[in-house]
Amino acid sequence: MGKIEQPRPVLLIAAVTSRNADAFEWTIEQTESHWGPVALKSPIFDFTETSFYTESMGTELKKQFLVFEKLFDSGQIASTKHTSNDLETAYAAASDHPESRPANIDPGYITEAKLVLVTTKDRDHRIYLQNGIYAEVTLHYRAKQWHSSRWTYPDYQREDFQEFFSRCRSHLRQAIRDHRAVELD
Question: pLDDT band for position 153 (50/70/90)?
Answer without folding.
Answer: very high
